[in-house]
Design a protein that fits this description.
The structure is a homodimer of 471-residue chains. The termini of chain A are far apart. In chain A, the strands form seven sheets. The first copy, chain A, has a five-stranded parallel β-sheet with strand order 3-2-1-7-18. A five-stranded parallel β-sheet of chain A has the order 9-16-10-11-12. Chain A is built from twelve helices and 25 strands. The longest helix of chain A has 16 residues. The first copy, chain A, has three domains: 181 residues, FAD/NAD(P)-binding domain; 132 residues, FAD/NAD(P)-binding domain (3-Layer(bba) Sandwich), CATH 3.50.50; 115 residues, Enolase-like, domain 1 (2-Layer Sandwich), CATH 3.30.390.30. About 3% of the residues of chain A have low confidence. With 471 residues, chain A is α/β, with parallel strands linked by helices. Chains A and B meet through helix 8, strand 21, strand 22 and helix 10 of A and helix 8, strand 21, strand 22 and helix 10 of B.
Chain lengths: 471, 471
């Protein structure tokens, strides 16, 4: 008799697992419960949909529900919310429009994802306050932008090059949070000619990146007419029915809309109710094979922890690649070939108007010391192409390494968009994943030609400077 | 008494060594003999100078002779040709306009570079036949382009988007050789609206790259109206005083000019005359510290061999980064801190009109087998950015790995210019340099965001596909 693989959640981790398991073992019965209607969607694309560069939500979907059902033979049940897991009986309970059902499993994957964190202040329930965690959030935001732009009061002088879509426009709007979502949404809103006010609690944007990267991004946002408020504690969203102002410890900024980009937290209630352990990060704890403390129950994606390749400790870094990779590994394991999900390096990339930035590993010295390293950090600025080449820009590279071993611990890069900070970060991730030292790295035989870099690519310059400090 | 470090040749390797040695040990007397007038120039930029994107040769010079003399305190003697080395007496003989001199040394670096290979056919001495090995070659070619363009016979219809500089133009011109120089010069000449005929002896362009890369570049050159002749043996350059035609085994193609891009060979006569050993490649043999068989005599740059990181064997890959890196290492060694030059990976990059391509390591199966590997190769095409993102292109990635160990042996990438083939190759060089396997590589936590790649970067897709073949 064939086995049954049940998956809770139909986004990246869930559908990667479903597809891989079914492909590797066509006899397996694969059942996916998704409480919404959308599956396998690229939530990372939502800011570009809201910006107006992508015309329909459907474009963000890589595989449709019908394709999963018909071409991949996966029993995908949208509109089904799993309300309980019974590890002893090896079954789950799902609620749907027509009632309730029980589904037995041989293997279970929890891929319930993450949800937007709403800060504990008054006014977050006012009309005009949004988060960006789901396709429906994206739809609402795009509709808001369209409504605002069709409004006759939306009349202001052209605000410069960011104004690609309209000749007259309005605002002001508030973005709370200076991480990826906050910055991408600032770009999306400014491109639609809103006057954007961005509030960040900490002293810099993109706190996981280097200080130099954060500073470059903040400066650039200001050049693009975004009002950036740092060390700004949002105390209250004011208004009656609709939001009217962001109130911080220092300012009261009138706004017509607020986007909360204040992070996400793993959805773990279902797992916790079934006695499945969460780690210190608050996400579901797993072993190398993404298996939880309850046998035959796996967790992957934005609801689960992963092992950090530098510290060796559990970390919570909910991003798309890990969800895909770990989901796929679980699918392969369930189909009969045990496959480790692999570590994470905490790598991330962001486009911020006309800049691009990436980071990986551990840059924070306290965290590096806790993991037993003696961190040293250096930052360099270098030409992105041969100085004489007509196109040219600057790449700023920050590297952190362990003093004695020279082992690369972390990196952060920023450049003009198109000048290669993000693709160059790939080289540093590779080095990091292999436990390479900057003494090796400075001698890498990287590709060189004048249209692409200087003879010593900025990555090599950074390694050389840092290695010189360690000797 | 201070020691003397003598360097023969004032380009990348020589001046890197001079600068580093003097910086690390200011007491060292550093003497550089350069037979020409130019030092420390970016010969890699010459095609872009000829194309017209760079306005003066001086822009290609990173540090001028006077700066070396005055700011870096280096005894740089341009117009001095070294004619003999006496390893027993530890001295060299140099000829200059005013006569001949002897210079003693404690340490000697031979950095005599490479010279263009002229194929053994009739007509290579005709007027209108050029090579591109030196600054003066570049100057002559630019002058040729300017003369041709000011000629009244230079009248033809616009040849399309490549025609950036003139509305009317002429040709035809021949380029012999389908390597970097041939392709970059085809671009430079086509941009100036010459009708370009490119002759390649072998069955594909860029023979060190993958077949897929070669095919993509050939197809693109043809789209750009370059006539590409493959498996075309040039037998003769015909003409009386001036070249009039390229004669191959199959064609007689009328041309007004010919550029020979048929490779380079190391300048080793001086070394050989002094009893310094050359390796099987024909270049000067060195150890890990770039030292030759003659003690205190080093060789670096385009005249010397280096160790290939994949095969462990000596190889001759005359490129700018190695010259800089090995020169710098010799400078450091001479200044008192013995420093290995480091291996090479045979990495190279080229822009070909609106394409970019890079390669590294060993792709050739016979060569891989000779080095003890069991090579397997796969090629994938993948979106360069999220499919829904407005800018988009394709990256083609070829990877070769050892069947049993999965060790990455080589890579070749090609994409539209700006879509990241070259910067992505950095990740593969890093993996190669660290001896990484594709089983590790497919799990790298590379940066992802929709403006830069798909969730699985093309590099990961390629590793995943190849790893799947090996399992």
């Amino acid at each position: 008799m064939s086995e049954t693989f049940v998956i809770i959640g139909g986004d990246a981790a869930g559908m990667s697992a479903a597809s891989k398991a079914k492909r590797d073992d066509p006899d397996l019965e694969v059942v996916v419960f998704e409480k919404g209607e959308w599956v396998s969607y690229g939530a990372c694309g939502l800011p570009y949909y809201i910006k107006g560069e992508i015309q329909s939500l459907a474009e963000l979907v890589s595989v449709t529900p019908d394709e999963f059902r018909e071409k991949r033979d996966i029993d995908l049940r949208t509109g089904h919310e799993v309300t309980a897991i019974d590890p002893d009986a090896k079954s789950v309970t799902a609620v749907h429009e027509g009632g309730t059902l029980e589904q037995g499993y041989d293997h279970l994957l929890i891929a319930t994802g993450a949800e937007a964190v709403v800060p504990p202040v008054d006014g977050v329930d006012l009309e005009g306050v949004y988060t960006l965690g789901s396709m429906s959030d994206g739809k609402e935001l795009r509709e808001y932008v369209a409504r605002a732009r069709s409004n006759e009061s939306f009349q202001q002088p052209d605000r410069g090059p960011a104004c690609q879509y309209l000749e007259t426009c309005s605002g002001p709007v508030g973005v709370v949070g200076g991480g990826y979502i906050g910055i991408e949404m600032a770009e999306a809103l400014a491109a639609n000619d809103f006057e954007v006010h961005l509030f960040q609690r900490g002293e810099r944007l993109l706190k996981g990146f280097s200080e130099e990267t954060s500073a470059a991004v903040a400066e650039h946002l200001r050049e693009e007419d975004v009002a950036v408020y740092l060390e700004s504690d949002v105390e209250d969203l004011a208004g009656n029915e609709r939001v009217e102002a962001v109130v911080t410890d220092e300012d009261r900024v009138p706004v017509e809309m607020v986007l909360l980009g204040t992070g996400v937290r793993p959805r773990t209630d279902l797992a916790a109710d079934a006695g499945i352990e969460c780690g210190e990060t608050g996400a579901i704890a797993t072993d190398n094979y993404c298996e939880t403390n309850s046998s035959d129950i796996y967790a992957a994606g934005d609801c689960a922890e992963a092992t950090h390749t530098v510290t060796g400790e559990s970390a919570y870094v909910p991003l798309a690649l890990t969800a895909n990779r770990h989901g796929r590994a679980v699918g392969q394991t369930v189909a009969g070939r045990p496959t480790a999900g692999g570590d994470i390096a905490g790598t991330a990339a962001v486009k911020a108007f006309d800049l691009e930035a990436a980071r990986t590993g551990v840059l924070d010295h306290e965290r590096a010391r806790d993991a037993g390293f003696d961190p040293v950090t250096r930052t360099i600025d270098a030409n992105s192409r041969a100085g004489y080449y007509p196109e040219d820009g600057t790449v700023t590279v920050t590297l952190t390494a362990d003093r004695d071993s020279g082992r690369l611990l972390g990196a952060s890069l920023v450049s003009e968009y198109g000048e290669g900070a993000v693709h160059r970060s790939h080289a540093l991730v590779s080095a990091l994943e292999e436990g390479a030292s900057v003494f090796n790295l400075e001698n890498y035989d990287l590709a060189y030609a004048p249209p692409f870099n200087t003879t010593w690519d900025p990555v090599l310059v950074a390694a050389k400077v840092l290695a010189g400090e360690l000797h």
